[in-house]
From TrEMBL:
It is found in: Nucleus. GO terms for cellular component: nucleus. GO terms for molecular function: DNA binding. This is Transposase Tc1-like domain-containing protein. Residues 118-188 form the Transposase Tc1-like domain. It comes from Araneus ventricosus (Orbweaver spider).
Length: 201
């Protein structure tokens, strides 16, 4: 079993007579013997180094490809640079397939609607304030031929702060309230403008 690190290599050997795990770390031409506790610490540090490297930059990719083109094996390059062999294998395969080793940046899933269609939804919603999202979706389809879901309509209108609003809940009127209001209306139905001019609302 071999464990790779930055410019280091450790190997674990098992004795025939006793189950003692010991390892050697080679740095340059010098070998250092490690017993179980130190070897575990080396393994943990090595895994942390591997986990911290998320993406390879273009310069490091070039170094990897250069070494492989010079005849080095993937395992040797992995040990020298401290990179997992699976990463090097995928990079080499991609280089052989299309000659490119740069990262492929994706812009994500394309939007269903264009900016012009988004403006159409906004204008239609403002003109017909009682329209539902399903109504707006159907109107957009009849005008442009673009099919969108209700959720998409919600999101597009939400970007411009258009969303459903409920009226403030009022105090419910009882039968007594209705009777008194009707009596007040009948009492003031025949008032003249001069009489109303004396009332301050």
């Amino acid at each position: 079993m071999q464990i790779t690190g930055n410019h280091q290599m450790a190997r674990i050997v098992r004795h025939n007579d006793e189950s003692v795990r010991e390892g050697y770390i080679r740095n340059g031409g010098k070998e250092v013997k490690l017993f179980t506790s130190a070897l575990k610490a080396f393994q943990c540090n090595n895994r942390i180094v591997m986990a911290q490297r998320k993406h390879l930059d273009d310069f490091l990719r070039g170094r990897i490809i250069g070494r492989l083109e010079c005849g080095r094996t993937q395992l040797e390059v992995s040990e020298e640079l401290g990179i997992a062999q699976s990463v090097i294998s995928r990079l080499w395969q991609r280089f052989q397939d299309d000659g490119n080793v740069s990262r492929c940046y994706s812009t994500g899933r394309p939007r269903v609607t264009t900016p012009k269609e988004d403006r159409y939804l906004a204008v239609t919603a403002k003109r017909n304030r009682r329209s539902t999202a399903s109504d707006l979706s159907r109107q957009l389809y009849s005008a442009t031929g673009t099919t969108v879901s209700r959720q998409t309509v919600y999101r597009r209108l939400g970007h411009i702060c258009l969303y459903a609003r409920r009226p403030v809940r009022c105090v419910p009127l009882t039968a007594t309230h209705c009777r008194l209001r009707l009596a007040w209306s009948r009492e003031h139905a025949l008032w003249t403008p001069q009489q109303w001019s004396c009332v301050m609302f």
